[in-house]
Amino acid sequence: MTDSVIKDVSGRTGRLTLNRPKALNSLDLPMVRHVREALAEWRDDDAVEQVVVVSEHPKAFCAGGDVRQVRDAQMAGDSEAGDAFFSEEYEMNAEIAEFPKPYVAVIDGIAMGGGLGVSLHGSHRVVTERASAAMPEMAIGFVPDVGISWFSQHVDTAAGHPEPAIARFLGLTGYRLDAADLLWSGWATHFVPQDSLENFLRAVDADGIDAALGEFAADPAEAGESKLASFAPCARQVFGHDTWREIENALDGGACSSEERRVINDLLRSASPTSLVSGTELYAANAAEGVDLRAGLRNEYAIGRILRHDPNFAEGVRAVLVDKDRNPRWQPAETGDVDATPYREAVQ
């Protein structure tokens, strides 16, 4: 068997190559453990000056966590498997954020869900023009997790400060960001054109991340114009609230143009009503003063554990990843029938 995460040291770099191609590098528990073991080994190794995470897949950096495995185990009566996977994955997310050396993720392709958890908490988030990212958990009856519901509300956007309303728009709608959007939102820190990537990585190994970026990082404007930036005024008005009911009222209240409302409604069409209500509670909790990343991860785990035991999770994963009919039967079918109380209490 080939390792699902290839670990090697090249020059000054500890290199992690995500290598589960048939699953688009979706993270399973062995992959999470490989990453954690490597970080523990390299943390105090003076020969390793930085960690670089890459994928050799032609289209994907990492398509997320392997929630299909979690669903299969749960359907077989084993809920502990899912609890163990998410617990260790979230610990990995925190360890990446706390890693004392440069941690460089190179996103050249699709990064979703857990793929953002293994990349965005690092010190350097390098994207190429082929980068594409989303938190699509609403469509599987879950919530944005792996620390992104916290990170996205605390990172500075191009406006020079964090924008929780933009973060909530991205997480609750599952909007797909391109390279320009990733740079504008602060999710990415640097842009390196794909045709320079091989030389960039060699320079990282030989000269270190700062020198390599000085030589190969391009002006973010070369990534193109951010569509998210033009959508931001609408998103700020609609998604700057702490309950789903308030967000719905703002959307219906004419805060955006008819075309912008159409785009939002199209994005929300696949979302689980339960996920929309519980996800908004999660974002509100993780924006609160004094909540750090580890507390944010605990909040994600608490709400996520409730949702994993809700039939909507199994139904959502079925519709998106098993039968792929994209026709989930949500219960309740309307957000107005979802009680927010258990989710609110879970993060208090």
Kindly describe this structure.
The protein is an alpha/beta fold. Helices cover 49% and strands 11% of the residues. It has 16 helices and 10 strands. Strands 1-2-3-5-7-10 form a 6-stranded mixed sheet, with helices on both faces. It has a 4-stranded mixed sheet with strand order 4-6-8-9. Helix 2 (67-75) packs antiparallel against helix 3 and helix 8 packs antiparallel against helix 9. The chain is globular and about 60 Å long. The mean pLDDT is 97. This is 3-hydroxyisobutyryl-CoA hydrolase. Its EC number is 3.1.2.4.
Quote the beta fraction.
Answer: 5-15%
User: Compute the gyration radius: what is it?
Assistant: 19 Å
Helix content class: 40-55%
| Unreliable residue stretches | none
First-last Cα distance: 45 Å
Q: Please list the strands of the largest sheet in the order they lie side by side.
A: 1-2-3-5-7-10
Look at the structure and give the mean pLDDT. Answer: 97
Q: Main β-sheet, in a few words? A: 6 strands, mixed
Shape by Cα distribution: globular
| Structure annotation, total helices | 16
Specify the structural class.
Answer: alpha/beta
- Strand tally: 10
- H/E element order: EEHEEHHEEHEEHHEHEHHHHHHHHH
Oligomer: single chain
Domain Enoyl-CoA hydratase/isomerase: 14-341
EC number: 3.1.2.4
Pfam families: ECH_2 (PF16113)
InterPro entries: ClpP/crotonase-like_dom_sf, ECH_dom, HIBYL-CoA-H
